[in-house]
Amino acid sequence: MQTTLVKISELKPALYNPRKMSTGEMQKLERSIAKFGFVEPVVVNKVTGNIVGGHQRSIAAQIIGMTEVPVVFVEI
Questions:
Q1: Tens of pLDDT, residues 38-59
Q2: Distance (Å, whole) CA 44 – CA 24
Q3: 37 Cβ neighbours under 8 A, 6+ residues apart
């Protein structure tokens, strides 16, 4: 699996993303990313450019001041 660093501002969240996190859950995710980094990259559909997995990780990364995240591109 090849990852590429991509600017968070260039990521396109999918409008159909069903996952929502409470404030407490998001804060836990922010602390985890700050401490351990990205254990799982953001997954982006190469065809549509939409995030397939990692919406919340990309938001948490932006909140803690990151400007780029590791991304894996897939063709779906």
A1: 999 999 999 998 999 999 999 9
A2: 26
A3: none
Q: Between the CA of residue 42 and those of 25, 49, what are the distances in Å?
A: 18, 12
From CA 67, how far away is CA 54, in angstroms rounded?
A: 15
* C-alpha–C-alpha distance, residues 45 and 72, integer Å: 9
- The HSE-up count of residue 37 (CA atoms within 13 Å, CB side) is 5
Cβ partners under 8 Å of residue 56, min gap 6: 19, 21, 26, 29
- Pairwise CA distance, residues 74 & 37, whole Å: 22
